[in-house]
């Protein structure tokens, strides 16, 4: 008796049904998060940002970032072989951005990837939950040396986002993390805006008063050099940076 060939449309329909069933299962397992509570420093599944002392006074776009567990505890890479847990370095959170867990890939097996990077994602370190992915990044960075210019808090967050395959991407880096927080993040309150920009305004005002406009030119040159370093290092000299 000849075997009947399965039409391509039937195979596609079966795949769509299986994919939908898997997505429904994942969504069912994503239990509701607690509300954000800035007073208790609880930011479930958020990226968080705060200005750095001295550095942010000269270049306010530079800061310190962290990523939060599902219970809201902040994790941040703030020193060699050390990850802060629920004790954000350099002060209270100034900006935050809550991420959508449904935009992450949590495969139960190689065939269960919802992203387009199945083998690469598995090899890099796929996880079945948000907190598992962050835990893997913690173990990875417990053996990393901190360096403001090549391996910093942005590197840790980028590593976490790559393990999550957030937004279907495994190309997260220092620059993309900074852009995401700075352009999509929201301020905690008015005081957060003040503490982020007031030191910069005071430094600029004092510098112009004491030195004149050459100070402003020097400050712009410093900011341009910093920005140029991170852009060139991220996209042209990738081997210099660690993730």
Mind explaining what this structure looks like?
- With 243 residues, the chain is α+β, with helices and mostly antiparallel strands.
- It is 46% helix and 12% strand.
- A six-stranded antiparallel sheet has the order 4-3-2-1-5-6.
- Helix 4 (130-141) packs across helix 5 and helix 5 (153-164) packs across helix 6.
Task: Outline the secondary-structure elements.
Elements: H1 8-29, E1 46-51, H2 55-58, E2 63-68, E3 74-79, E4 82-85, E5 95-98, H3 118-124, H4 130-141, H5 153-164, H6 174-184, E6 186-187, H7 190-210, H8 213-235
Helix pairs in contact: 4-5, 5-6
Please summarize what this structure is.
The protein has helices spanning 8-29, 55-58, 118-124, 130-141, 153-164, 174-184, 190-210, 213-235, and strands at 46-51, 63-68, 74-79, 82-85, 95-98, 186-187.
**What separation lies between the terminal Cα atoms?**
57 Å
Give the radius of gyration.
Answer: 22 Å
Mean pLDDT: 87
Order of helices and strands: HEHEEEEHHHHEHH
Identify the overall geometry. Answer: globular
Largest sheet: 6 strands, antiparallel
Strand order, main sheet: write it out.
4-3-2-1-5-6
Helix content: 40-55%
Which regions have little confidence, pLDDT < 50, spanning 5+ residues? Answer: 1-6, 8-28
Share in β-strands: 5-15%
Instruction: Tell me the structural class.
Output: alpha+beta
Q: Which features does this protein show?
A:
243 residues, 6-stranded antiparallel sheet, 46% helix
């Amino acid at each position: 008796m000849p075997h009947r060939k399965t039409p391509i449309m039937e195979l596609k329909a079966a795949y769509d049904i299986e994919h939908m069933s898997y997505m429904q299962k994942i969504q069912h397992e994503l239990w509701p998060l607690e509300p954000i509570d800035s007073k208790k420093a609880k930011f479930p599944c958020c990226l968080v940002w705060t200005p750095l002392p001295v550095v942010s006074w000269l270049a306010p776009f530079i800061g310190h970032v962290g990523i939060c567990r599902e219970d809201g505890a902040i994790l941040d890479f703030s020193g060699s072989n050390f990850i802060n847990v629920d004790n954000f370095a350099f002060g209270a959170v100034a900006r935050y951005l809550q991420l959508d867990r449904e935009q992450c890939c949590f495969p139960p097996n190689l065939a269960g990837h919802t992203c387009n990077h199945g083998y690469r994602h598995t090899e890099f370190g796929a996880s079945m939950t948000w907190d598992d992915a962050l835990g893997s990044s913690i173990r990875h960075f417990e053996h990393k040396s901190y360096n403001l210019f090549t391996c910093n808090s942005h590197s840790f967050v980028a590593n976490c986002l790559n393990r999550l395959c957030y937004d279907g991407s495994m190309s997260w880096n220092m620059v993309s993390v900074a852009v995401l927080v700075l352009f999509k993040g929201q301020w905690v309150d008015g005081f957060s805006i003040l503490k982020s920009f007031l030191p910069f305004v005071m430094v600029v005002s004092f510098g112009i008063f004491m030195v004149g406009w050459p100070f402003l030119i020097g400050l712009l040159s410093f900011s341009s050099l910093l920005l140029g370093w991170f852009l060139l290092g991220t996209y042209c000299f990738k081997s210099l940076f660690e993730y």
